[in-house]
Amino acid sequence: MPVIRTEFDIDAPHQVCFDLARSIDRHMESTARTRERAIGGVTSGLIQLGESVTWEAVHFGIKQRLTARITEMDEPHFFVDEMVQGAFKRFYHKHEFISVAENKTRMIDTFDYTSPYGILGKIADVLFLERYMQNFLMERNLYLKRTAESQAKVR
Fold this sequence. Notes:
Elements: E1 3-10, H1 14-21, H2 24-30, E2 37-41, E3 52-59, E4 62-74, E5 78-85, E6 90-101, E7 104-114, H3 118-154
Helix pairs in contact: 1-3
Keywords: Cell cycle, Cell division
Pfam families: Polyketide_cyc
Protein name: Cell division protein
């Protein structure tokens, strides 16, 4: 049951960071490498509490679908998305935004998941999956940081 945690300080207001993190459109931009696209539920704009999105993407050369629902939200401080259906046995993904100074936000991203297939899933975690997910989340969060900071400069 790996837990992946990343933390970034972003030179932008926390509402900007919060909205970018729940933007379906920005998510697709940040995951272009895996051709991730929203194909069901909320497919554009800002996802809200209780709403879900179905993603289609290519990971490890295999086209996959995953549906996640926003199960908790305290705007603009945090939201949680949880897998409803997909490749994992389960996941709980918390996105937190803490104002640390004027126009400066600490983004804390915690991804807690369980791989499917019992012991085979645990072996996959050790061999490649946890590292793959760390890189995937890091790439996405760096994209969010760059985008938020460039938007904050325009304001």
